[in-house]
Amino acid sequence: MSSELPAQRGVDRPQRSRPGSVPPDVLGPVAGPPGEPAFDADHPPRRDLIDDCVHCGFCLPTCPTYVLWGEEMDSPRGRIYLMEEGLDGEPLSPSMVRHFDRCLGCMACVTACPSGVRYDRLIEDTRQQVERRHPRPRRERLLRTAIFQVFPYPRRLRLLRGPLRAYQASGLRQLVRRSGLAARLAPTLATLESLAPTLGRPARLPARLPAYGRRRARVGMLTGCVQRAFLPDVNAATARVLAAEGCEVVILPDRQGCCGALSVHNGRAEEARRFARALIDVFDAAGLDRFVVNAAGCGSSLKEYGELLRDDPAYAERAAAFAAKVRDLAELLVELGPVARRYPLPVTVAYHDACHLAHAQGVRAQPRELLRAIPGLELREIADPEICCGSAGVWNVLNPEPAAQLGERKARDVLATGAELLVTANPGCLMQVAAAVGRLGGRVALAHTAQVLDASIRARPVTDLVP
Ligand code: SF4
Ligand code: SF4
Q1: What CA–CA distance (Å, rounded) separates 51 from 457?
Q2: For residue range 273-327, what is the model confidence (pLDDT) as tens digits?
Q3: Which strands form 445-448's sheet, in the order they lie side by side?
Q4: Engineering a disulfide at 258: which of 105, 152, 189, 222 sits with its beta carbon 3.0 to 4.6 angstroms away?
Q5: Nearest CA to ligand 1 atom 7
Q6: How would you list the strands of the sheet with 326-328, edge to edge?
Q7: For 166-178, how does the pLDDT look when each residue is reduced to its tens digit (9 = 90+)?
Q8: 367 CB neighbour count, 10 Å cutoff
Q9: Whose CA is nearest to atom 6 of ligand 1?
């Protein structure tokens, strides 16, 4: 662990933060429903799961908000304590909401917990209570509305491509960044601007890609929202790798929409259920053996479809069956075993564990195994791999300042490896770390695992990945 970590606090029942010791409030003061208990009867955080926590504190050093601020109530243990207070009848106070909102949902605490506490379930139920019951201030409401009216809609995101490409090509980008004006006047916009990758030509995906050689599986493929609009090369590489490994790939890009991950991670359960039902309807009749996902956050949500739609009699069974077929790309490729030849790629690679792949899905070994199997590729480990890079869906947009701090911490650890190429399996992490590396004036190329495998299978020169 890094020496920057604060000393672990007491191991007994946690104490509330002292007034004045809480980090700057990024959301402003809000009014909760006065006097009402924090949670209603519609899936509050479960007391039996809360009772599993023995307050040992082992999770604290892996929690990014505790690492940043050293505040008990910004740790998993503190948040569980607040959930218990809510169940005991305490109202949903502004400070309670603030501590829940500050959780990145990275699930590092789930990995670290020796008692098997299902913090993932607890925070998901808590967030949907907060979203339904807590009136947010106007500015924040508008920002969240804007985010959720755009991000989960690939067609709306696609409309942003043109103006963004023109802006990037005009040279205005460098000017805006150098002046630092945007960061001072509109930090949220500046964050979005800094995260946007340099856009190339959009890649068009076919409805179906046949397997190369003997067909070994028929798989569906999620194209995602941000990934499809801003990192289309990742989807193209994923489809080619799958086909090269003997998969018939069913993509249906014009019919599939958002998987609901962004919504479910932000407590918008009904919206998430709508997206989930639509995706199941599109792929259910396709006769798939597996459904492949190349974005960690989406994969972890898709694997929970059974849970998300458990109360829907028309979809509960279909959702559970669909979820059982979901695999991360690396997971499926290892499950199948390689048939396509790997050509050498002489490059040093630092592999970054996306939280929703490592902590939420337990997929750590497979991407490393796939990368190590490429001749000439040298794999290097990043220090403190369990600490989130600060991306966390839209957390970096809602909390630009602490997200930038976490991004730069990760970027420093990445640069310390001396690797030429950073590889990860989540669009959010790619954009977050790229922006942070840029701010530090460092240099490292970035790629998704699929792009590295694709380059090796197609015998592309390493300069395709590290220009
Ligand atoms: S999910 Fe991440 S940010 Fe939230 S409490 Fe757990 S470790 Fe901390
Ligand atoms: S969540 Fe787990 S690791 Fe954290 S304090 Fe509770 S029992 Fe300990």
Answers
A1: 50
A2: 999 999 999 999 899 999 999 999 999 999 999 999 999 999 999 999 999 999 9
A3: 377-380, 347-351, 421-424, 445-448
A4: 152
A5: 63
A6: 208-209, 247-250, 217-221, 290-293, 326-328
A7: 777 677 666 666 6
A8: 28
A9: 109
Nearest Cα neighbor of 432 from 461, 383, 466, 393 is: 393
- Ligand 1 centroid–CA 70 distance in Å is 13
> Contact at 8 Å (CB) between 260 and 274?
yes
Distance of CA 36 to the CA centre of its chain: 33
Phi, psi angles (nearest 5°) of residue 449 = -50, -40
78 Cα: distance to centroid of ligand 1 (angstroms): 10
Taking the CA of 12 as reference, the closest ligand is 2
Bridge pairing between strands 326-328 and 347-351: unpaired
Tokens 């040992």 appear where? 56
| Burial 9-36, CB ≥16 within 10 A → b, else e | beeeebeebeeeebbeebbeebebeeee
Nearest C-alpha to atom 8 of ligand 2 is from which residue? Answer: 56
Q: Which of 50, 82, 103, 266 to mutate to test the pocket of ligand 1 (most atoms within 8 A of CB)?
A: 103
Q: Model pTM?
A: 0.88
- DSSP state letter for 74: G
Tally of CB atoms within 10 A around 423: 26
Q: Which ligand is nearest to the CA of 103?
A: 1
Q: Residue of the nearest CA to atom 4 in ligand 1?
A: 103
